[in-house]
Structures are given as structure tokens and as C-alpha cells.
From TrEMBL:
Keyword Mitochondrion attached: no
Keyword field: Membrane, Transmembrane, Transmembrane helix
Pfam families, alphabetized: RseC_MucC (PF04246)
Protein name: SoxR reducing system protein RseC
InterPro entries in alphabetical order: RseC, SigmaE_reg_RseC_MucC
Residue runs in coiled coils: none
Transmembrane segments: 80-98, 104-121
Highest taxon above the source species: Bacteria
Keyword NAD: no
Length: 153
């Protein structure tokens, strides 16, 4: 199970809107100045991801929740998104290479195959979108921010 903590933005009618802020894979490393992964993370957008998850328990804005998704469904989704267009690119290029024998037509076939692979991946993704295996679930709910009180002596 892949787990990540998220912050509640709002909760209405059994639907929680959550914000997950992306973290770099090497957040605990102190070699940030020489790390290529850290530099790539700095180049990317700093936007947070938002999720809508059904939950019957009322939540307060600012409350932390732990969200999880199974590794198997995550790997299947990644395979669908990356491998389907790649297979289309290779198949389209190979087919046009065999039919037309020129490099220009091979490139056109590869582009058409990749495009068809993207369309197929999109179609398959809409079919599996509603399945519960592919939906994130709330694993733990933290205390609301109003429940924490600090007493000074």
C-alpha cells in the first residue's frame, strides 16, 4: 500500500477535498546541491495535487488524513499510461517500415501508432476509472486543528 498524508481543504455531503503536496524522493538526503533528482524537482511545477474522496465522517479544513492506494493498481495504471503508447509507437513504426520501406513513412507510422496508443490508453483508463481498486482510500484521520490545545504554565 502506497501511503501519503494529505490536508483537508473542505468536506461537503460526504465528499472530502484533499490537498497532497508533492515531495521529492530524496527528502532526507543532505547532498541537495549535488543531487540531480533534487535539481529536477526544483525545475518542475510547485503545485499541489487535489483529490476528492468519499468519506462519511465529517472532516474539518486543515485536518490531516492518510491516503493510500494499492501498489498493484498503481503499477497497472502506470503500465497502461506508459506502455500502451510505447507499444503503439513501435508497432506503427514497424508496420509502416514493412509497408513503405522509407524512413519518412516509418516516422509517420510511429507517430500515428503512438497517437493511437494514447487514445487506447485513454479509453481503457475511462473504463477502469470507477473501479474501487483504482481509487485512493482514507486510512487514518488525524485530530482536527481545533482539538489541539497547548497550555502554557
Amino acid at each position: 500500500m502506497m501511503k501519503e498524508w494529505a490536508t483537508v481543504i473542505s468536506w461537503q455531503n460526504g465528499i472530502a477535498l484533499l490537498r497532497c503536496e508533492p515531495h521529492s524522493g530524496c527528502g532526507s538526503c543532505n547532498a541537495r546541491s549535488g543531487c540531480g533528482s533534487h535539481l529536477l524537482n526544483e525545475l518542475g511545477p510547485k503545485s499541489a495535487h487535489q483529490l476528492q474522496i468519499p468519506i462519511s465522517q465529517p472532516l474539518e479544513p486543515g485536518q490531516k488524513v492518510e491516503v493510500g492506494i494499492s501498489e498493484g493498481s498503481l503499477l497497472r495504471s502506470a503500465s497502461l499510461v506508459y506502455l500502451t503508447p510505447l507499444f503503439g509507437l513501435i508497432a506503427g513504426g514497424s508496420l509502416f517500415q514493412a509497408l513503405f520501406i522509407t524512413d519518412a513513412f516509418t516516422a509517420i507510422g510511429a507517430i500515428l501508432g503512438a497517437g493511437l496508443g494514447f487514445l487506447l490508453a485513454r479509453q481503457l483508463a475511462t473504463r477502469i476509472e470507477g473501479q474501487s481498486d483504482y481509487q485512493p482510500t482514507i486510512l487514518q484521520i488525524g485530530l482536527p486543528p481545533t482539538a489541539i490545545r497547548i497550555q502554557q504554565e
